[in-house]
Every structure is written in structure tokens, then in C-alpha cells.
Amino acid sequence: MDSQKFGTFISELRKERGWTQLELAQKLNVTDKAVSKWERGVSHS
């Protein structure tokens, strides 16, 4: 899965659940900035 597809996938799942980027980040124990980067396809490592 490329970075852009991964980002779209994460974003869609998050929105389906009604979560903000911060809420998802807290559940995954990462920063909201990391979630933002994933969704934009900047990084997924």
C-alpha cells in the first residue's frame, strides 16, 4: 500500500468513527502531528 492510499484509508476510518486526529493519536499513543502526516501521505513509518 503506498503512502497516499494508506493516508486515505486512515482518514476514512477515523472519520467513520467520528474521531479527531488528536483522539486517534491518543488511542495509538502517537502525536496528532504523526496522524496528520500519515493522512497526507508524508510518512507512515
From TrEMBL:
Residue ranges of every copy of the HTH cro/C1-type domain listed in the record: 10-41
GO molecular function annotation: DNA binding
Listed PROSITE patterns: HTH_CROC1
Pfam families: HTH_3 (PF01381)
Protein name: Helix-turn-helix domain-containing protein
